[in-house]
Design goal:
Bound molecules: 2-acetamido-2-deoxy-beta-D-glucopyranose
Radius of gyration: 24 Å
Shape: globular
Structural class: alpha+beta
Low-confidence stretches: 1-53, 519-545
CATH class of one domain: Mainly Beta
CATH topology of one domain: Jelly Rolls
Mean pLDDT: 82
Distance between the termini: 13 Å
């Protein structure tokens, strides 16, 4: 995160997780778990006909409930990784502003965007409401106030592509006051407020995205400083169980030395929503007595492996991946960010990109060219030192005409730990705010724009292309390696979501060096050594890092 000093990031109270050689660990546990599962099935089969049926069925249902609880609770690890340092630095109910864009030198956030500055506020509402001010920002500047519960559900938005009106908003739990209100943004009965945001839980966050250009950071800082937050004491009671203030509820729950699964179950105790699904109680989680009591005979490793397998399985289902065209796909466009009772998707997304936005606020298409004959990780392209990727855009992507924008960002690095690519010019992304040119030399944006094709060259940072390519050159890692081209569309118009816009054609080519001379690729046939989806990579990451989609 920007603006935070290294020394203050790790807290005594809420320490961040440690890496613990996760890759070897995962493989080991995975194999063991499969064996356990087969044994369990055999045991179940053997005892079905015996008088022990009831005991086994109840052990089985505790086991299932624990698997469910983990699937339900895994996003809380992402919450812990991202928000614990912020809570420790500024506390709850206070704005925390990032003042600078990320650079290749920043390694804390995986796959950071270089399109927006963030502001964060962690709200803590067991005994009070909070009032925030949303400043007056011109329509042609992108701003989006997104409200999330700790599970990463984006239940309300105020800003570009949605409802936007400057002024004061009241943030309160949906079940405080006269009966239960609908979760989300509602009208206020008081003239003091533009709107009321009814939160699904006592705890959650507001994440603000401010559209950044090369020159507007000072202006964004003014907007950030114009955001206020005040506690509003309330005599109104909560309908349902009370909860302790955030810091108090968190004190005993997170153990830096423990494995993810017990941490998830303990975090669930602290962040259990009102009206939790019954499986949480069956798994031994009780918000009422603030404890996790493991039921007898539960194999946590098995439950953990089963839950993660279910989460990963959902992301590779064809039905979850909407095919756009030219091998670009969109993960669950109708449910991403909302999830409903799709806890598997919710968990999977929290492992690969916490705090996703819903369409049309933003969409994040993935280039997926992985198949049996071309194994690798979805989204990842492996380049030899003399290879490049040429992306041919059919025309300007259709984004919100007032304040929408788009970018293609390049990430490099190891599986599960992708960062901005170091390069001499500090170019990490290209899009509508950069000086892209058409092949005839005209500017794609800001000139006499036409609807024709333009190209972006993703080529190693140590192989400069000819001068006419410079403004369309997005540096890939020097010497080649894994590169992840990430498209982001903020304020996406329907053709982008529906796939009626023709997405960029993506071709692996030899590097372009001389006067337009293309060197034939020698790396044809090379493949990445790890098979699986990008989410698999992210599971490695969730132990120790923060991934924000954008
Ligand atoms: C537990 O889950 C398994 C597999 O999902 C299922 O077959 C079984 O019926 C469940 N058992 C109980 C007691 O819910
Ligand atoms: C708020 O009131 C306006 C009319 O004043 C109405 O158009 C709008 O739908 C209402 N919004 C909600 C969330 O009730
Ligand atoms: C944290 O977890 C480790 C490893 O499981 C355990 O040895 C230790 O007792 C735990 N600490 C607390 C305070 O529970
Ligand atoms: C659960 O899965 C994660 C990720 O694969 C792994 O690191 C951990 O050891 C597993 N087991 C537990 C008990 O958390
Ligand atoms: C917590 O409450 C549950 C029931 O809600 C109960 O089964 C469990 O024993 C309690 N744990 C403690 C430590 O009191
Ligand atoms: C990528 O696109 C090509 C051409 O449309 C198609 O033949 C191929 O099956 C696609 N690959 C994947 C993994 O969808
Ligand atoms: C784009 O070009 C203009 C004029 O040539 C220059 O002033 C500006 O800094 C460039 N912007 C970027 C992002 O390179
Ligand atoms: C650069 O010039 C070559 C040769 O004329 C042309 O093929 C290519 O499209 C140009 N690239 C850009 C980005 O204008
Ligand atoms: C746009 O086109 C007009 C007419 O052809 C020309 O006069 C003008 O200079 C062009 N502007 C730019 C920025 O290329
Ligand atoms: C897509 O996969 C095909 C093989 O199926 C391969 O020839 C091609 O280079 C791949 N494209 C990219 C950009 O990796």
């Amino acid at each position: 995160m920007n603006g935070r000093k290294d020394g203050t990031r790790r807290s005594m109270l809420l320490p961040a997780a440690q890496p613990d050689h996760p890759t070897c660990f995962n493989q080991h546990r995975g194999v063991r778990s499969t064996v356990f599962e087969i044994m369990n099935l055999l045991i179940l089969f053997t005892v079905l006909s015996s008088t022990l049926f009831h005991t086994t069925a109840s052990a089985q249902s505790s086991q299932n409930a624990t698997t469910f609880a983990l699937l339900y609770g895994y996003p809380l690890l992402a919450w812990q990784n991202y928000y614990a340092p912020i809570i420790n630095e500024v506390g709850a109910n206070t704005w925390y502003h990032n003042r600078n864009l990320q650079t290749a030198a920043d390694r804390e956030v995986v796959k950071p965007n270089v399109d927006t500055l963030y502001s964060n506020l962690v709200y803590d509402l067991p005994i009070q409401n909070i009032e925030i001010t949303i400043p007056d920002i011109p329509a042609d500047e992108f701003k989006l106030f997104s409200f999330y519960d700790p599970y990463g559900v984006n239940y309300a938005n105020v800003g570009t592509s949605g409802f936007y009106k400057p002024g004061k908003y009241l943030i309160k739990p949906y079940n405080r006051g006269n009966g239960n209100s609908a979760v989300g943004l509602t009208n206020s009965t008081s003239s003091r407020y533009v709107g009321v945001v009814n939160t699904p839980n006592f705890y959650g966050t507001i994440l603000v995205r401010w559209g950044a250009t090369s020159s507007n950071l000072p202006q964004i800082h003014k907007y950030q400083d114009a955001c206020s937050a005040f506690l509003v004491p309330t005599p109104d009671a909560i309908v349902g169980p009370a909860a302790p203030p955030l810091l108090q509820s968190l004190i005993p729950v997170y153990n830096d030395s423990a494995l993810p699964a017990p941490n998830v179950l303990n975090l669930l105790v602290a962040f259990e929503p009102p009206n939790p699904p019954p499986q949480l109680a069956a798994a031994g989680i009780s918000a009422w007595n603030h404890s996790y009591t493991p039921p007898p005979n539960v194999d946590l490793d098995l439950a953990n492996a089963t839950a993660l397998r279910q989460a990963l399985a959902t992301t590779i289902l064809p039905s979850t991946n909407k095919a756009l065209n030219n091998n670009w796909t969109l993960l669950a466009p109708s449910t991403l960010g909302i999830y409903g009772d799709d806890y598997a998707l919710r968990a999977a997304v929290s492992l690969s990109g916490y705090l996703a936005l819903r369409a049309p606020f933003a969409i994040y298409p993935t280039f997926n060219n992985v198949s049996a004959s071309n194994p690798g990780n979805a989204g990842v392209i492996f380049l030899e030192a003399d290879e490049a990727v040429l992306l041919t855009f059919s025309g300007k992507p259709p984004v919100d005409s007032q304040a929408g924008f788009w970018s293609l960002t390049a990430y490099g690095g190891d599986l599960g730990s992708y960062h901005l690519v170091p390069n001499e010019r500090d170019v990490y992304a290209l899009g509508d705010r950069s000086n892209l040119t058409y092949p005839n030399g005209g500017r794609v944006y800001g000139g006499n724009s036409t609807g024709e094709e333009f190209q972006i060259l993703l080529q190693p940072a140590d192989v400069p292309p000819p001068a006419n390519w410079t403004s369309n050159w997005l540096p890939a890692p020097s010497g080649g390696g894994n590169v992840v081209p990430q498209l982001r569309f903020y304020g996406a118009e329907e053709p982008l979501e529906e796939g009626t816009y023709v997405y960029p054609k993506v071709e692996k080519i030899g590097v372009i060096t001389g006067q337009g001379v293309t060197v034939p690729a020698t790396g044809a046939g090379s493949s990445v050594d790890v098979v699986g989806g990008s989410v698999v990579a992210a599971v490695v990451c969730v132990l120790a890092c923060v991934v924000l989609l954008g």
